[in-house]
Amino acid sequence: RVYLSFAEAGDADKAGTAVGYGRLSADNKQLEDFRVIFRQQPKLSTGNHFGSKLAFDRQGYLFITLGENNQRATAQETDKLQGKIVRLTAEGKVPADNPFVDQKGKRPEIWSYGHRNPQGLVLNPWSGEIWEHEHGPRGGDEINIPLPGKNYGWPIATYGINYSGLAIPEAKGQVVPGTEQPLNYWKVSPGVSGMAFYDNPRFPQWQHSLFIGALAQRDLIRLTLDGDKIVAEERLLGDRNERIRDVRVGPDGYLYLLTDDSNGKLLRVGRD
Description:
0% helix
């Protein structure tokens, strides 16, 4: 099977994130029997903040990131699927142990909430936990380890400000009771996008690293880990001046990067 997410049009020129899967044909040239298994509801986006990252955990559950469609308040509203991470079975069903199952007025798909626009989602190969990162507004990009039923703050708790330079209207501070603090945040937003843990013998110097692309700062970020602690940060590709949209580790141990441009590239990156 091949799973993919996409922006699906709805009524009144609004759209939302959708996810489906098909089976790769025997000649590896097309997807057959494609079916949609999830739709973000309600559809509110006019072209902003779709989220749309996918990851499977070791139990085979599918996690999906959903941006708040630039409708800030919805990230705190658990009757909507904006600003959430949801957890489903591989067939798109709701697991019985999701945190809001059978709670009136709350969407049972929700795993965690209070997210802005998550653009990275990946399984930690050493701990088995799902890690997520998301765009802040002007400042406040952050990394989280999303736990069931927890509130990650947006927009009431944030380290960022509005693009105008003014405070986020709903914000109550950087640390707000009832919300979770990020594992890591940036005061100046790199524009994080794509994320990959490095667990391959080809480049031993990169072991226990987390690689993240940067759209705004046009770079590749390498974070050195000690367990769940980030102990160092390195920038690797700033001289290329290209927006990095996605980061993957290939089976050959090289990094593969997608650039975000009208003439986008697939880059293969190693080290001496």
